[in-house]
Amino acid sequence: MESHVRCGACFFDDPSTHDSGWALPSWKEEVFRFGNTADLSSDVAWWTNLSYEAVSVSGLQGARFRRDSYFSHPMKRFWNELGIDESDKEGLRANPKSVWGGRFDNGDFLRLGVSSWLFEQVIAIMDDFLPMSAPPLNDLAYGLRERILPDVRRFFPDGPPPDYFISALESADNAYQPTSVSSYDRARAGKGDGLLPGHFRVPVDRVAHAQQLFRVPFPIGGWRNVGDMSILSRRGPERILDWLDQNPGSLIRATMKRCDPRMESMINYGANIQRNARSGYWLTSLELAALLPWCEFVLHEGVVGERLSSIQEILEQAMPRQVQNKPVGKWGAPPRGFGSPEVYTPGYCSALDPETVRMRSVSYPYQIFMDVLWRAAIGTIPKAPKSARNPASAFVRAADRMLLFEVAAQLHSVSIGVSGYGSGGVLISPPEGMVIQEWIPILLAQGLLPPFLPQGLLSEEWVMNEVENAYNPERTSENVQMLQMAFLLGGLDMVVRFSDEFSLYHPGAEGGAR
Fold first, then answer.
1. Which domain of life is it from (predicted)?
2. Tens digits of per-residue pLDDT, 306-318?
3. Could you tell me if 26 and 116 are in contact, meaning their C-beta atoms sit under 8 angstroms apart?
4. Phi and psi of 28, rounded to 5°?
């Protein structure tokens, strides 16, 4: 997929001085050395290794330069997921069949090439959804938020939430803790004895995860103060669950009294909920419902928004509706297994069409884009006062935690250590003595993308057999199996080819693997 904007990457030798470094205007071009920013083309959007503070202080925060965490995570995370160690000086050796053309035989140059490729691909996908003249400033989620979220009046048809609801929302949202590990676990994790560190982060299938979060209901009107809920808490968990089912847009202040000791540390890692907290915690309805089977709660008070919306509804209203072709392959024919390209989807928002999503799910850049998209939709409502806090944030973040809590609980039950979860991934620690061939199938069965492994470590026959055994039509798709294969076999070329072949192209654009 091609972006109509040139997208490159540049790494400054010293991010604090932001002068000289190495640059790549496109992943299909050649790396060059620059002495200062004046040497960098003004018609290229540059993804840099500069922090937000460095970009702001340096005066580079303009049309050309984007910060390191432009896609909501540092670019190091994407390198790690693709098997490129930050300190590795080895690149790709010359291979005429490689999509890289053997040009990146240096580790630093390879990281530039991968960053430039990912930047170009994600921006091209964004341009398919919401055409923009240039990649948004600050970060992609911020730029998408400005285009996706409606103004305050359309967001809250019954008027902004009253003060009592805003106060509860702030507490519930502030309690959100991204994946974290205690200092004790950090100290004992070390490097481990195997091929991988003792602890490492494994992402979920980001497309499937985003689709689930798109459907999470959150309140936008019909505000009601329930008041004292102590009587309901004395009636037992079944009655509490019934009430939560009837009031999905509710926030409840509750204190956790007892908890299954096997799960208490995991709950604390993800939700930061401690037992017997004096004033309790404000929890969303879905978070309380997910934790009730493991914990006993005393309820104090509650607030409800009876009128509900979802990210899906917001996106359908914001994104342009258009007829969209199915993808074409290298020679103009559809990729194998996808039938005729002359199939249209009128009446759908093209970005959310299920067939479109299914076909694109094998694309690694598309996985990244969908991750950014749900984060954008829970951001601050543009140009809105504090009283118009986006309620999607607390509810969708809670759903993210609880979906991953279920995965973490399953891993925990089969002796895969879990020391954190949330924000689209699980932090795991396989037990000592368990070999890779034993724990990777467990990750696959949970819809997780396994670590990118050194090429040749696992045979293709073994990988295909394990992916087939782990296939669950309710959790993943044939395309995601292919992406899992690419990760397992450790072939960066394979990831790039899959991402390219199964992308949707602009009308008349040349498609296919390069």
1. Bacteria
2. 999 999 999 888 8
3. yes
4. -95, 0
